[in-house]
Please model this.
Amino acid sequence: MKIKMKIFPKLPEKVQEELGHFELENFYREEERTPEYLATEKDKYFSTPKAWLLVFEENQIIGSLKLHKRNVKFNNKNVMLGGLGGVCVRRDKRRQGIAGVMIEKAMKILKEWECEVAYLCAHIEESGSLYPQAGFVSMKNPYTYFGQSGKLYEETNGFIAPVKSLDLFKKILNSEQKLHLGKGNW
Model:
């Protein structure tokens, strides 16, 4: 198996189309592919990534990860928050270490971008040990963000990891204050 990882600051139109099909088939479970569910997802996750990390096998996408960077306020201080979104591996290629390699590369990129802490959201029952192995810890408190519609969302499936500031990571993790992501949950 010859795989190749590429980072795109902007997706070419052809790759963007392929990625859309890939995500629909591999990111969402069958029961989630309803128009109502997908509309809610579109309201929540609308931020344009700073970069896309894609894994190809024979010119076909087999893995994807979106990289984000955003300045947020926490305890009245600016925090450079890095983010991973849309981590996905083609169903028949899962449990082969591809996601782990993508996340490892993504964390190095977030460090280069001077991010202090990384954030992602995931269903713990599906992700297992994948994110903890990369240093991510489940947040104790809910986090909030505004959807594209302006609706305020509060959710509990957030993970954070230290990138350049272990101290800030610990403060966020142990604070009673909710982390507010701003506009969009990536």
